[in-house]
Amino acid sequence: MIARTGALLRAVAANEPDGASTTEVARVAGLARPTVHRLLAALGEEGLVDRDRKTGRWTLGPELYLLGTSAANRYDIVPQGRDIVAELARESGESAFLSARRGDETVCVYAQEGSFPLRSHVLHVGIRFPLGVASAGLAILSHLPEREADDFFSRVSPEINWGSAHSESMIRERMISTRATGYAVNPALLVEGSWGIGAAVFDRYGQPAWALSLTGVETRFRPDRRPVLGEMLLAQAHRLSLRLRR
């Protein structure tokens, strides 16, 4: 029951701010529509979700905001990372992002647009990807202990929803490259022409818990520029890691 409730809330969150229909939530959560409607109605009674009376679409409820406000004191690193993300966007001209690991996924928690007028529009605050998908998740997965990475692949098969480019063997190849350079590269695997580079941010125990990333159009990620962007990310990720340890 708890796992299903979590799946429903994540499915609703993925469609913010416009909300999701019961059918859409059922499809994303992999549950029968009558079951989803019953569970959402129960969550609505607790204030965890809201339903628009005109459209019938579900959104996150006010009780989640109150709970999130309490949890933010412990888990929200946006105040510590906001200036770093802004600096990355300013120096690179690309869109910069801060993502957090949440179990087997990453969720984008903060974004800052760069000055370059063409953008990829792949990432936005609230979007979730499995580890290994997109540069932020690949950076985090690549720096996990080998046993944790193996456990992840035993639970999750990213290629089911993201295609053969995200098979375990292909992701592991990119993990090797990421460990060699320190930063992860997404060569337009999610959206054609949209590239990303990410670097892991470590918690006080030395575990990759967040990631900084830059995204942009392919012409801005030429072979000669990728190392420059990668080193920029690594420097700022190290800076944020040290700040969080203190």
Automatic annotation (TrEMBL):
SMART domains (alphabetical): HTH_ICLR
A Pfam family reported for this protein in Swiss-Prot or TrEMBL: IclR_C
Keyword NAD: no
Segments forming domain HTH iclR-type: 1-62
Keyword annotations: DNA-binding, Transcription, Transcription regulation
InterPro entries documented for this protein: GAF-like_dom_sf, HTH_MetabolicPath_Reg, Tscrpt_reg_IclR_C, Tscrpt_reg_IclR_N, WH-like_DNA-bd_sf, WH_DNA-bd_sf
GO biological process: negative regulation of DNA-templated transcription
Domain IclR-ED positions: 63-246
Gene3D superfamilies, per database record: 3.30.450.40, Winged helix-like DNA-binding domain superfamily/Winged helix DNA-binding domain (1.10.10.10)
Record has Zinc as a keyword: no
Example of a GO MF term: DNA binding
Protein's name according to its UniProt entry: IclR family transcriptional regulator
Organism: Mycobacterium adipatum
Lineage: Bacteria, Bacillati, Actinomycetota, Actinomycetes, Mycobacteriales
